[in-house]
Design brief:
Length: 646
């Protein structure tokens, strides 16, 4: 496929799911790839780049730098999180994802990629019943050993590259993400997606040599052997680690004896005080190792850091496509950036200081973030003490109660949910971001390849940067109650009426009504009667609702309760083909329409303003709230539900 101009890809993003008011204008030349390119490897001769595409139909793209195009696209059974060339460039090894194997290919000097064999991980003994998923792969400097991250079994499997047989396993920290060999081949570093740590293991014994605690969700690793001039360097290497659940890159020192220690932390935020949301995910060094390029996935930018001195310095930003997941320094002093949600490769000349300054202005202008940004609701905020946040699943806007509520209250005509999968949309709705675990793996789950649903609470690698809306409220001392969100129900209720078998998120344990089960709303209605009797209702209530009839009964009951004059109800269906958003309160406009663009973080920002909560990420911090839908004079008229016979 031919290289296409940046504006073409900017237009394509109208079909993507960026948060409202976040835009892209990628620098450089854009080359179209397959869906969801997440990782890449450059051939040892520098002539080709291979991109691992993990979308609906996994594939490997071969990009020919001389021709400036994708020269081939090879379908594969599944895609993990990494791929690597052998030192001689003749073979390529790919994480096979749920195939539970490393996929081996031959690669010719002309750029021809051919499937060779599968190195199966099935023979590695395990007592775990966790899903099988081979993520990253790495090849030893001598080419004799292949290491593969067995993601959900928390181990690394070693293969003999000649025989293809398993040579051993190394028990690791939780959710091994990136594997990086020490240059001497006698040890390897590994980032633990769930443990907020980087580990070092010896080979062939697999003994843990070092463990350094850093920021949450460490992902990519890159090693520099450049010494800082004119100063004493107590380390042999500097190891740079991207921590995707923060705005930070951590810099570690590796000594001659392979001891590892923390040297400094580099903040990639648009400002020093910016909330989390940059999602640094990919790293690359310039050829002279004086610059570090950092793929900031959720910011749609590559941060550029000056690492030439003892203290690293953020130098600026380069605007790229949507969700840059990997970055590589390539020949002719260029950088190559994989844009996971634009399905493209950006090839950009390494910028001078002047060009970088211009790029930085553009990158910031493409976001709504401003350090001094503030938003507010009218005076009624202090009058609203209770918020019901109702999340619906694919019900759509056609039900009689949904239609009536949209007519009687305010109708939002321009609601565009962020998130390209149901799992991502849910996380945006409750955490103001889809963690990188969700962004990278939920498409495989949605396509039916990944058999593990780790996107609805409880997965240690999927915790959002600042928790969830309810944990935010609990931290602020508010009262919270949950009905059906992030729970696993029993096949049928027992004699005690308990419907919930397991609460998936630990922070919801103790505040979840265990008798509530959608679509029946009775357990909530019973609680509401108790609230009426005590005169106290929780400040925040989350409800999972599955039917139009249940929604009607819930809204009618709340609107006829003593709490209605101090209540706001937000109803969202972000996974329906026709996404829906409603705001219901005595303080919302009646019988009107609002054409302002909104998404899930707009709702979160509104709830935060009502309940006086701090924003969780840069997205709700800079989101436009639903303030235009509210008025200062209340209309306390109750709602009468439509009788649907359900």
């Amino acid at each position: 496929m031919r290289a296409l101009p940046a504006l073409f890809f900017a237009a394509l993003l109208s079909a993507q799911s960026l948060p409202v008011n976040w835009r892209i204008q990628p620098a450089g030349t854009q080359i179209a790839l397959d869906a969801l390119p997440l990782s890449a490897a450059v051939s040892p001769d520098g002539k080709f780049l291979l991109a691992l595409n993990a979308g609906n139909r996994p594939s490997i793209s071969v990009v020919d730098f001389a021709a400036m195009k994708e020269s081939a696209r090879i379908p594969i059974p599944d895609a993990g999180l990494g791929l690597a060339f052998s030192p001689d460039g003749r073979r390529v090894y790919v994480g096979g994802g749920s195939r539970n194997a490393v996929l081996e290919f031959t690669f010719s000097p002309a750029g021809e990629l051919k499937a060779s064999r599968e190195l199966s991980a099935a023979a590695a003994p395990s007592q775990s019943t966790a899903a099988s998923f081979i993520g990253d792969v790495a090849v030893s400097p001598d080419g004799r050993l292949i290491l593969a991250a067995d993601l959900f079994h928390d181990r690394v499997i070693a293969f003999n590259s000649q025989s293809g047989q398993i040579a051993g396993t190394v028990k690791t920290g939780r959710r091994p993400y990136r594997i990086l060999f020490h240059p001497d081949g006698q040890a390897f570093f590994m980032s633990s997606w769930a443990d907020a740590s980087v580990y070092e293991y010896s080979l062939p014994s697999g003994t843990e040599m070092a463990r350094v605690r850093i920021g949450a969700h460490p992902t990519d690793l890159v090693l520099s052997n450049r010494k800082i001039p004119d100063v004493q360097n107590p380390w042999q290497y500097r190891l740079f680690v991207a921590a995707a659940n923060t705005n930070d890159v951590f810099v570690l020192g590796v000594s001659d004896s392979k001891d590892v220690s923390t040297l400094e932390t580099l903040n990639t935020g648009f400002s020093a005080l910016a909330p989390a949301g940059m999602t640094p995910s990919g790293l690359a060094l310039s050829a002279d190792q004086t610059r570090l390029f950092i793929a900031c996935s959720d910011a749609n930018a590559v941060a550029v850091a000056d690492i030439s001195e003892t203290r690293s310095r953020l130098a600026g930003f380069i605007p790229v496509g949507a969700y840059p997941a990997a970055v590589h320094a390539v020949n002719q002093n260029r950088i190559a950036v994989l844009n996971g949600h634009s399905n493209s490769l950006s090839l950009i000349g390494a910028p001078t200081e002047d060009i970088l300054a211009d790029y930085s202005k553009t990158a910031l202008a493409l976001t709504p973030y401003r350090e001094s940004f503030s938003d507010s609701l009218p005076e009624q905020r202090s009058s609203i003490e209770h918020v019901l946040y109702i999340l619906m699943d694919g019900v759509g806007s056609g039900g009689p109660n949904l239609s009536k509520l949209a007519r009687e209250f305010v109708r939002f005509d321009n609601f565009h949910p962020a998130g390209g999968t149901p799992a991502a949309a849910l996380n945006w709705a409750v955490a103001a971001i889809a963690p990188d675990f969700t962004a990278k793996l939920s498409p495989a789950f949605a396509a039916g390849r990944l058999r593990y649903n780790g996107f609805e609470g409880g997965e240690p690698a999927n915790l959002p940067p600042a928790g969830y809306l309810w944990s935010n409220a609990l931290s602020a001392g508010l009262t919270v109650r949950n009905y059906g969100l992030l729970v696993e129900n029993k096949p049928a209720a027992g004699a005690d009426g308990i419907q919930v078998a397991r609460v998936k998120d630990p922070s919801l344990v103790g505040i979840t009504n265990m008798k509530y089960r959608a679509p029946a709303p009775q357990a909530f209605l019973d609680d509401l009667k108790q609230f009426e009797g005590t005169g106290m209702m929780p400040n925040l209530m989350m409800l999972h609702v599955e039917s139009d009839a249940a929604l009607g009964r819930i809204v009618e009951a709340v609107s006829k309760s003593r709490f209605w004059p101090q209540t706001a109800v937000f109803v969202m269906d972000a996974s329906s083909p026709k996404p829906l958003l409603l705001a219901l309160s005595p303080y919302t406009r009646r019988g009107s329409a609002d054409a302002t663009p909104y998404d899930q973080v707009s709702v979160l920002r509104t709830i935060e303003l009502i309940l006086n909560l701090r924003p969780m990420t840069v997205f709700d911090f800079s989101a436009r709230s639903l303030a235009a839908a509210f008025v200062s004079t209340p209309n306390n008229a109750p709602y009468s539900a439509e009788q649907t016979g359900q």
